[in-house]
Queue: 2 jobs
Job 1
Amino acid sequence: MNENNIEWTKLAETISFEKEPEQLHKVKRDDIFIVKDEDGYHAINNRCPHLGLALNVGGCNKKDKTVHCKFHSSDFSYDTGEVKAWLNIKGFEKFMIWLFSKFDADAKKMMTMEPKPVETFPTKIADDHVWIGIDQSN
Ligand code: FES
């Protein structure tokens, strides 16, 4: 990441995270999910890298620093973006997806995708606000 190509966007007052430690903010066309934990502020793209569904609705595990995608049970580090679990579907739901995949090529493709990390963004605190940096060179 080239520091000179980063555009910083002011998001929310730091004090607002005391009541609401997980927040969703729109930055241009992206929804950015901000998680505050004991180490500070972490920013990720709210789109799950699997099918693009919303990550914020699945909840966070602050101990593991992960966010859970509730749609197909994947977990990502909200700190590094790393995949911690990918399509960890079990039981009847797994059987139904397997069955569906037998007859639908698109469904099969969706459920055999290679793991992809979630996009992360640097954060900083200035003027009592949380800012995120977006690399403009991408
Ligand atoms: S959309 Fe997140 S795991 Fe499928």
Job 2
Amino acid sequence: MKRQHSIIILAFVFMFILLFARVFNEKSVYQKPYVNAGSDHPLSYTFPFESQQTSAQDITPKIAIVIDDFGGADTTSVDEMLSINCPITVAVMPNLPNSREHALRASTAGFQVILHLPMEPDYVEPNCLGPGAIYCNLTDEEIKERLVEDLDSVPSAVGINNHTGSRATANRRVMKVVLEVAKEHSLFFLDSLTTNKSVVAPLSRDLGVPYVARNIFLDDTVKEYAIKRQIYRMVDIARKNGSAVCIGHV
Ligand SMILES: [Zn+2]
């Protein structure tokens, strides 16, 4: 009789554990922000903020902040950014003297790292793109080779976002090659959305590459009041949509 009691109690404990695991799992999936229908948000470094929503069923809004243009020579702002007490995503430009060092420092400090891929804009200023840039006149093979080299120079990258690229991200052939390489390396693509003609969303969906799009830039105007205004906008977007992806610059 005593043994039967023990078995019943054990069965209850087991059921409780199963139930708890299920609820916990559903909650964590539920809280993950949007991306292509059904898939996980590729930017894992997000932080929740105080939500005004009170219902237990409401989603806690999430924000991902991506800081572009690491890898350059300005080490003061890099040092400041890498000591920030906030889980940002660090986007590093390839093949610059500090690309490797910044990527390694960022990942060692616990930040998520992505490749900040220079891509051809509509109005090309060759000097702003730097080495390893993807131009639309490159062959498929050249794009592939260049992108693999770029990725080699940014260790621990888990995704790619575009630096400029209004022309390249609107080009199906170019983006298909870029996204195929991303898929081969299990990387997500964050579209910085530098053009409204971007083909990245439908292509990444077709190719099965995790994709997310930038909601706002934080520092188009580099003034404190303007950046604060963008931060309030970022919070509004996250409250409305469940998440927001924002890009600033180091
Ligand atoms: Zn950039």
